[in-house]
Amino acid sequence: MVLAEDMHMVRGALVALLDIESDIEIVAEVDSGSDILPTVFAHRPDVAVIDIDLPGMDGLTAAAEVHGKLPSCRTLILTSLGQPGNLRRALEAHVSGFLLKDAPPSKLSDAIRRIHAGERVIDPELALDAWSARENPLTARETEVLRLAAEGAEAADIAGRLFLSVGTVRNYLTAIVIKLGARNRVDALRIAREQGWL
Asked: Which residues carry this modification: 4-aspartylphosphate (predicted)?
């Protein structure tokens, strides 16, 4: 398996934990989302365990790329971000598993085995929360605009990066605030993050 985790202590603990398992072999470790696809192509693992929040490329985007370009490699998202929106995004990315980092260590090795066997593994509490959570009202473009705003980009920067006019970006930002029932852009960012939509 390939392990993608940017926090060195956490990655070291996971490696130590999984090294105990005689039937699980870690063939490579990476600390950036951008390194996942090249590493998966180089090693062709059966399973990739991916942190959701990685530098370079987030874990869900990387998991979707792995599924699209090397579907034989099944993916398990490991995260401390247990919002229902993240689970929905993970399912859209065709991940095979979604496990919270505060789960007991035995659950991780069990999840890897089950995913390798072709099963899907999802934290049951989170699945229930996702079932009853509200749907993301934002379009893909609105989400993209909000994600760039969350990175600190101003309207002019967002317009340049997305090849839009500044007025169009401002219209998107206004629509986002209205759709989310937010007081302002900062509140919209808070709501979207809490729901796991970003």
From this structure: 51
Residues 31, 34: Cα–Cα separation, whole Å: 9
One-letter amino acid at 183 equals: R
Please give the structure tokens belonging to residue 156: 């002019």
The angle, 0 to 180 degrees and rounded to 10, between the axes of the packed helices 185-195 and 166-180 is 60
- The bridge status of strand 2-4 relative to strand 47-51 is parallel
For 146-184, the pLDDT digits (tens) are 999 998 999 999 999 999 999 999 999 999 999 888 899
Q: Is 163 helix (H, G, I), strand (E, B) or coil?
A: coil
CB 156 within 8 A of CB 146: no
Query: How many helices (DSSP H) and strands (DSSP E) are in the chain?
Result: 10, 6
- Residue written as token pair 């919002």: 83
Q: What is the pLDDT of residues 76-114, one digit of tens each?
A: 998 886 676 777 788 888 999 998 888 888 889 999 999
Q: Which helix (H) or strand (E) holds 48?
A: strand 47-51
Q: Which backbone phi and psi does 41 adopt, to 5 degrees?
A: -65, -40
